[in-house]
Design brief:
Blueprint lengths: L1 H16 L15 H8 L8 H19 L3 H9 L3 H14 L3 H13 L8 H18 L22 H4 L1 H21 L2 H31 L5 E8 L4 H8 L3 H19 L7 E3 L15 H14 L5 E9 L5 E9 L4 E6 L38 E4 L5 E8 L6 H9 L4 E6 L9 H16 L3 E5 L5 E3 L5 E4 L6 E8 L7 H9 L3 H33 L2
Parallel strand pairs: 1-2, 2-3, 7-8, 8-9
Antiparallel strand pairs: 1-12, 3-4, 4-5, 6-7, 9-10, 10-11
Helix pairs in contact: 1-2, 1-3, 3-5, 3-6, 4-5, 6-7, 7-9, 7-17, 9-10, 11-12, 12-13, 14-15
């Protein structure tokens, strides 16, 4: 059992190293093999549910510990928790956050011995790959990460995400691991050949998509562009909180930092069509000031926009007639003095909301630094014109919403040309989270085949093309201006979008969840059948 535990530990190390910021994505193709051997080498009397769960738990714990260690810092900064409480919460996250692995091992062990699948390695590999993706998608994860996300920087492999998102890549990862394990265990070349064929198909698809985009890009080189200047002001946590609490000097400094960078952007020879500030950059409720300092901030903003020859898109706060506040994104046209406002709809649990917080309002007093926001209506599309009058349609997402495939897919289906994400990652520190957050978000461009511009407070501010390539990226924790040029959508509709029109934006994970459910039912029925046969056999003795 000790050697099996070490093999499971090795799987955990390989899995963690495949992700940002280490980015050894190729390790995903073999990361599960040591775990499979860990189970295989158990003697029959050791193959209890308890031992199989324990081996899977080792990998799941390491995924949490190695990939999300930064949550200790984040819960102190964002939730105001003391260090011991943050460590305790982190350990709880490691224990419960990735239990799809032991659940999968239980299913795998039973399916491989099922009378209908025993010896049918390739069919089992396909079924198990789909089932793992379904289990992982169904399992309640806070950050929606999956094994396929490791390939965010792989220009060929990631292109297959336009078929079924990163969970489709996860399916491929598990199929390859199962086939390579079978090739090693049974010493049969046909499983290696099947793996090579699958690899060739993945590479060919990636090559085709890259070639197709290069050709289309050349054809549309003369199309109108929308120029955006993304402002990364690098406002620290304490300064940001002080400004939101109405401290005069802090509010003035925040506004001046954004305004000075915006003026620099407008002085560029190629004038931007829009200035874009990140999430909650404007530390007050726009056009509904609640205090004298908020009125002063609005006066500063109006002074800047009075002669502004560009749209201003900025994160801030909004409030409704019931005094409910929203984390919002404003699309403001200084020429017509009109605004459009988007309210964030996917709220970060334990950061912007709590379970049952509305039913038990006293819970809010337990977390004084946490925001409790209203929930917006969902994905929307907003039209903004460039200096020449051409209209471009933007599908906005605020921070956490960028992790959700269906959110961006729905925006694309509503006619968006560009994905616009605004984020504030300052609470999460310099290690781990900014890299992981960007890695997970990049897949939205591939699924929808739309470009993305992403404005952040402290980085990474980035311009991403429809192939998932980062064309420009800022440094972390450094004030900067990123200038991006995007065009109206010209890429053919992705298979993912085509299927989403019929079955909805989460169609692939729903399919995998259904397959996993059917597989679990089959396993349970098989166990019932065997127990019944054993009972009947004993009764005849």
């Amino acid at each position: 059992m000790a050697i099996s535990a070490l093999l499971a530990l090795l799987s955990g190390i390989l899995y963690v190293l495949s992700f940002a910021p280490w980015d050894q994505a190729y390790l995903q193709w073999i990361a599960f093999i040591p775990l499979f051997y860990a189970v295989e080498r158990l003697r029959p009397e050791q193959k209890s549910r308890k031992n199989i769960f324990a081996l899977g738990f080792i990998l799941s714990f390491l995924i949490g510990a190695g990939g999300f260690y930064w949550t200790i810092y984040a819960t102190q900064q964002y939730g105001g928790l003391p260090y011991p409480a943050s460590v305790a919460l982190f350990l709880l996250f490691c224990i419960a956050g990735q239990l799809q692995v032991p659940i999968y091992l239980f299913l795998r062990e039973n399916l491989r011995s099922h009378s209908k699948l025993k010896g049918r390695i390739m069919a089992s590999a396909l079924l198990l790959g789909l089932a793992y993706a379904g289990i992982e998608a169904f399992y309640p994860k806070l950050f929606k990460d999956t094994a396929g996300n490791a390939f965010y920087a792989s220009s060929w492999v990631r292109q297959a995400a336009d078929i079924g998102g990163p969970f489709f890549l996860t399916t491929l990862v598990l199929i390859v691991n199962e086939l390579l394990f079978a090739a090693s265990l049974y010493k049969k070349i046909k499983y290696l050949l099947a793996t090579a064929l699958l690899g060739a198909l993945i590479a060919s698809y990636g090559f085709y998509r890259n070639y197709q985009y290069a050709d289309l890009k050349a054809q549309h080189a003369g199309d109108p562009v929308f120029r955006a200047s993304l402002i990364q002001a690098n406002i620290g946590d304490y300064l940001k909180v002080a400004a939101e609490r109405g401290e005069i000097s802090a509010s003035a400094q925040v506004m001046n930092d954004y305004l000075n960078l915006s003026k620099r952007a407008m002085a560029d020879q190629l004038k931007p069509d829009a200035i874009i500030w990140p999430e909650t950059a404007y530390p007050a409720i726009f056009q509904k000031p609640l205090s004298g300092i908020e009125m002063q901030m609005e006066t500063l903003l109006r002074g800047f926009t009075h002669d502004l020859k560009a749209s201003l898109i900025f994160g801030g706060y909004d409030i409704d007639s019931k005094r409910m506040e929203y984390n919002s994104l404003f699309f403001y046209d200084p020429q017509t003095q009109t605004k459009q406002v988007y309210h964030k709809s996917v709220l970060l649990m334990f950061g912007e909301t709590l379970p049952f917080a509305e039913s038990f309002p006293e819970m809010k007093s337990w977390f004084p630094t946490m925001g409790f926001f209203g929930q917006g209506p969902g994905p929307q599309v907003y039209e903004v014109k460039n200096q020449s009058g051409q209209a471009f349609k933007f599908a906005p997402s605020i921070c956490y919403e960028g992790l959700f495939t269906d959110h961006s897919v729905e925006g694309a289906l509503k006619g968006a040309d560009v994905l616009l994400n605004v984020t504030n990652d300052s609470w999460f520190g310099p290690d781990g989270e900014p890299y992981l957050h960007l890695a997970l978000t990049r897949f939205r461009t591939i699924e929808t085949r739309r470009p993305m511009i992403r404005a952040t407070n402290t980085g990474f501010t980035v311009w991403i093309d429809p192939m998932g390539n980062q064309l420009k990226t800022t440094e972390l924790f450094k004030p900067d201006i990123l200038n991006a040029e995007v065009q109206n959508h010209f890429f053919p509709e992705s298979p993912y979008l085509a299927m989403s029109r019929v079955f909805g934006g989460n169609w692939y994970v729903r399919l995998c969840e259904l397959i996993a459910l059917v597989a679990l039912i089959v396993v349970l029925l098989e166990r019932v059948r065997k127990n019944t046969e054993n009972t009947e056999r004993l009764s005849k003795l």
